[in-house]
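agent> Task received from the user: take the single chain below, predict its 3D structure, and emit structure tokens. No templates, no multimer pairing.
agent> Plan: (1) validate residues, (2) run structure prediction, (3) serialize to tokens, (4) report one or two observations.
agent> Step 1 OK, no nonstandard residues flagged.
tool_call: predict_structure(input=
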Amino acid sequence: MSVLDAVIIGAGYGGMGIAALLAHAGMSVVVVEQSSLVGGRASSLTDEEGYRWEYGAHSHRLAEKGIASELFRRLGDEITFLPRADDAKLIFKDRLWDRPEGPFGYLKTPMLSLTGRLTLLGLLIKIKRSRPQDWFDRTLLDFYRTRFTNREVEEVLALLGISVMCPDPAKVSAGEVIAFVRRLLAAGVSVGEPVGGSAQIFEKLRFHIESHGSISLGEKATELIVEHGRACGVRTDSNEYRADRVVFAARLPLLLEIADKSLFSGTFVDHCGNIENSSCLSFDFVTNYPVTDIKGSILGVDIPVWARFQTNADPSFTPQGKYLSTWAIMLPWGFDGDPDIVTAAEKRLKTTVSRIFPHLLPNLIRERKLVIPVMNGNVLTPGQSYPHRPDVACDTVQGLFFVGDTVRGEGCSADISFSSAMKAADIILGEKGARH
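)
tool_result: status=success, residues=436
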């Protein structure tokens, strides 16, 4: 049996990202994925009619200046983004508002009174001058109340929280918000939409992986092989792979299904068992005509909703003459699959849609509903913020690495996955270089 340089468990952003980086450097890799599709929680499928269905809508923070683009630059490649839309919107008090551009855009928004606008501008200035490491263990609401008392602005703090997918200011880590907003202010661009959606990302990563490796779909990892304190392979439901190192690129709680807890510290096991994730309810709506010409994304301020009219910006998502929009609403923290909660969320979302776009729902020709039990694998609370997540290199099992949105990468959501993939790849490639 030949020995691989690395076997990677999981074909999401993190697993595909690190596999591509290692293969690009000439290492032999295999990615094993239990699903029939690559992409994990960002997978997509184009059906026989020409509709591209994504597992929820996925954007990339800071576009070409973001973390995902940095990984592609390391591959000598790039993400092709759609032209930047200048008509992004906010939902606030059952109305649609233009989303302000940059800090000084908030001085002009009619969403707030003049006092509120000045307070919000002051808050953004305070964020720019603050160090994330001083605030990871405190909430955004704590941070705000150290200097400000304006209740009107407290109502819109969720906008800062939703930027890292945790809209509750009393729950989200202030340090995580500060870190992202500082990067946003430096980049000057908030988000980018890849042409063709997440399919483009995974097609390009697959190309790089297959230069020195392979991807095995429909194959479930069942056991992490550890000998003499070192990870040396993976058993699946159909194969055994021997490798110099193993990269676990799924959510950390799933690691304990294939590895004995005694291999890890009690602190690590406790952390894995208590990671809080977020959940959402997503709808794809299809009409025969465009109900709006908006191309930018839509974010809720006082309701945890986000939306995008994909076909307006990227006609490749639908057959000619059909128009797709995707809407999602975050489900309550700790969602356990209760259908009554789903029903209530659906009613709330569709009520909001009907008030803002009254011609959308009555004219649907197709609707797809998805309950997504794990949206973000790690909610950016103080206890799950950057310094408190496990590092990418396991400290108790040599040759074992962790990648994905539940480990210590920078950013939020997919950015954590891409960041951790680059960090783990740097360590692995450094080790290999040292041996030679």
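agent> Step 4: summary for the user.
The domain at 89-189 is CATH 1.10.405 (Guanine Nucleotide Dissociation Inhibitor; domain 1).
agent> Done.
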